[in-house]
Design a protein that fits this description.
Helices cover 58% and strands 0% of the residues. The chain is mainly alpha-helical. It has one domain: DNA polymerase, domain 1 (Orthogonal Bundle). Helix 5 packs across helix 6.
């Protein structure tokens, strides 16, 4: 094999098997987020609960038309979703 004999074998390659196992949970699962809010959050690069869970609530408050307490509630729900999973979040 050419790759085994060349220096290219030492470079990093993407592991496509891992990418198949990873899924992103849409923000629609969060109570209080509808399709209009989802689209507005997507304008600010928040497209999944994982993104929302790590978002800075104060920056989101400044950048979006939503209230600080509402954003903090969404971030808390997203963090809960990431911790317990979407199936358990729905049951809660």
């Amino acid at each position: 094999m050419v790759m085994d004999r060349s220096k290219l074998a030492h470079f990093k390659r993407d592991n496509t098997e891992i990418c198949r196992k990873i899924t992103a949970t849409p923000v629609d699962i969060i109570d209080g987020i509808d399709s209009d809010i989802r689209d507005r959050l997507a304008d600010h690069h928040i497209r999944s609960t994982q993104n929302l869970a790590t978002a800075n609530p104060l920056m989101s408050f400044v950048e979006t038309p939503y209230g600080a307490y509402q954003i903090m509630e969404w971030v808390a729900q997203a963090q809960l979703c990431c911790s317990v999973g979407p199936d358990k979040l729905i049951r809660l």
